[in-house]
Write a structure and sequence with these properties.
4 helices, flat
Length: 90
């Protein structure tokens, strides 16, 4: 996945900018395994994993705090804003 993301550094740079605009300090970590983002990258759609799950990941007791979901929504809104601004020079 990283090999593909390195082809266009804007993808990760814009994601980091969007996270910070949403009030979230990015924490870059390597995620091993076959994520949807990795598959999409190799299909030509560069897709970094911005959020990787919740609490008790992949268990019967997995859950995600509402606050985290709200942060994800705000990040998506900010990511759209960043891409529009950078693409149009707005």
């Amino acid at each position: 996945m990283r090999l593909k993301l390195d082809e266009d550094p804007r993808v990760v740079d814009y994601a980091i900018e969007a996270l910070r605009a949403a009030g979230i300090e990015p924490r870059r970590e390597i995620i091993r395994g076959g994520t949807d983002g990795a598959r999409l990258c190799y299909m030509g759609l560069l897709t970094p994993n911005l959020f990787a799950g919740g609490v008790n990941f992949h268990s019967k007791l997995e859950w995600v705090p509402v606050r985290w979901m709200e942060g994800a929504v705000e990040t998506i809104v900010q990511l759209a804003r960043v891409w529009v601004e950078k693409s149009t020079g707005a």
